[in-house]
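Hi support team,

I've been running sequence recovery on a batch of backbones for a student project. Most finish fine, but this one hangs at about 90% for roughly twenty minutes before it completes. I'm not sure whether the input is malformed or the queue is just slow. I've pasted the structure tokens below so you can try to reproduce it. Let me know if you need the job ID as well.

Thanks,
M.K.
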């Protein structure tokens, strides 16, 4: 199995776990909220690292940051809403470095209402690009 295919498999598994967490989440349980946010963090990481692996497999090197990879994905029409993806990156950075309960609530809402849909769409587009 090629590097991009391994990454896609890992990304798919992480996305499934994120969706599972969202399905169990309720606003009264801060532990579940924290779990959803943690699952979002590693799903987002796998999303951009999978994109990076796909681009590198296609001969495009030097994409060393999530922002660079997301710009290339937008140019390649693998993502449509670059602003939303940059907001996802910002939220991932915020949750990884600080903890503020109100911010956590807002980010969890974004994950449920906006981000998971984009992460699913990206996975499908990557699979199509790889011929899966």
């Amino acid at each position: 199995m090629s590097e991009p295919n391994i990454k896609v498999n890992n990304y798919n598994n992480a996305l499934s776990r994120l969706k599972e967490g969202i399905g169990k989440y309720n606003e009264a349980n801060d532990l579940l909220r924290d779990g959803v946010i943690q699952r979002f963090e590693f799903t987002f990481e796998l999303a951009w690292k999978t994109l990076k692996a796909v681009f590198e497999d296609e001969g495009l090197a030097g994409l060393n940051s999530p922002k660079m990879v997301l710009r290339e994905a937008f140019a390649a029409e693998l993502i449509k809403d670059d602003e939303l993806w940059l907001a996802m990156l910002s939220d991932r950075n915020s949750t990884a470095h600080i903890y503020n309960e109100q911010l956590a609530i807002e980010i969890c809402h974004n994950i449920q209402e906006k981000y998971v849909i984009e992460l699913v769409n990206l996975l499908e587009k990557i699979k199509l690009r790889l011929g899966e």
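--
Follow-up from support: It reproduced on our side and the slowdown came from queue contention, not your input. The mean pLDDT is 94. No action needed from you.
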